[in-house]
Specification:
Elements (H helix, E strand, L loop, with lengths): L36 H13 L3
Length: about 50
Amino acid sequence: MGTVGGAPDGPARPSTAPLEQPMAVKILIVTGDAAESLEVLYPYQRLGLSGA
C-alpha cells in the first residue's frame, strides 16, 4: 500500500558499501630547543584524552 510514517515498503536491504576503516589522526607539535618538557607533554596528553 505505500508508506506509513515514512517507512519503506518491504524488508530493509543491507548496505553494499564496503566497510570503511577509520583514518589515523596525525598531529605535529612543533617545539624549539628551549622548550620545557611540560610545555610539550601537557598539550600531548590533552590531545590524547580528547581522542585525537
